[in-house]
Amino acid sequence: MKFSIETFWPNNIGRFINPEHSNIKKDLLEYIDDYMKKNESKRGGENINLFESDYTIQKSESESIKKLTKFMSQCFFQMAIHTNKKHYKNQDLSCVIKNMWFIKYKKGGFVLPHDHGKCSWCCVYYLQAGVDSDTNNGSTYFYRPTRYPREEKDFGSLYNYSTIKMPAEEGTMLIWPNYLLHGSMPYQGKINRIIFSANASVFEMNDKKQNILS
Predict the structure, then answer these.
(1) CA torsion through residues 186, 21, 165, 112, sign
(2) Range of 29's domain?
(3) Hey, how many other C-beta atoms are within 10 angstroms of the C-beta on 127?
(4) How far apart are CA 73 and CA 187, in angstroms?
(5) Do the Cβ atoms of 171 and 16 come closer than 8 Å?
(6) Interatomic CA distance for residues 152 and 133, integer angstroms
(7) Does the residue 192 lie in any domain?
(8) Which among 11, 51, 68, 194 counts the fewest CB atoms within 10 Å?
């Protein structure tokens, strides 16, 4: 029997490990503490128990922030090239990080399901997470993109279950397409869960759209 199977509209989620995490963690924690002393949270309150920065952290002059954004950009390139490998011909690419922010969760803090617009890829970088993090404690979850809330339980549909939970691991970053609904499970660990997030687009260098500034 001859046949072929092709994949369309992939929903790739990348997991990247930062080899420089231990070298920048302390400085990033100090940056966050200093920021929180001078600024109010952009979102939150006791209902979701967290502090969120503004969305322009990528413009900071902090050397550790610069190192983190460089790592993020390298990972966004890898996601874009892998997902669009049929179209990649070694052309020059430009990564624009449009927004970047951090969230410091207190005990029980969480973020409700949402998606992001005006970018191609989104990410979460786990700066701090306790060893007690797991799929039900402080994880990031994703919903299957579908118009119909229908979930079959047969073997043929195992690949297509509606929710995926990925535990938070320090020094690790997840990247996903902007349209995936996602949120965070409440974290009941002994230390505060702290993350950086960013939205990015990847352009071909000759694409006039690339002049959108971060």
Answers:
(1) positive
(2) 14-85+92-143+160-205
(3) 24
(4) 28
(5) no
(6) 29
(7) yes
(8) 11
* Residues in a beta bridge with 96: 201
List the CATH number of the domain containing 115. 2.60.120.620
Question: Which of 213, 209, 212, 199 is closest to 116 using CA atoms?
Answer: 199
Name 83's Cβ contacts closer than 8 Å, sequence gap at least 6: 10, 12
| Residues 21-55: tens digit of each pLDDT | 999 999 999 999 999 999 999 876 555 889 999 99
| Residue 59, both tokens | 């413009």
HEC string of the chain equals CCCCCCCCCCCCCEEEECCCHHHHHHHHHHHHHHHHHHCCCCCEECCCCEEECCCEHHHCCCHHHHHHHHHHHHHHHHHHHHHCCCCCCCCCEEEEEEEEEEEEECCCCCEEEECCCCCCEEEEEEEECCCCCECCECCEEEECCCCCCCCCCCHHHHHHCCEEEECCCCCEEEEEECCCCEEECCCCCCCCEEEEEEEEEEEECCCHHHHCCC
Q: Are 113 and 182 in contact (CB under 8 A)?
A: yes
Number of separate domains in the chain: 1
How many CA within 13 A on the CB side of residue 49?
14
On whether residue 212 sits in a domain, the answer given is no
Hey, what are 175's tokens? 């990247």
Other CB atoms within 10 A of residue 109 CB = 22
At 36, the amino acid letter reads M
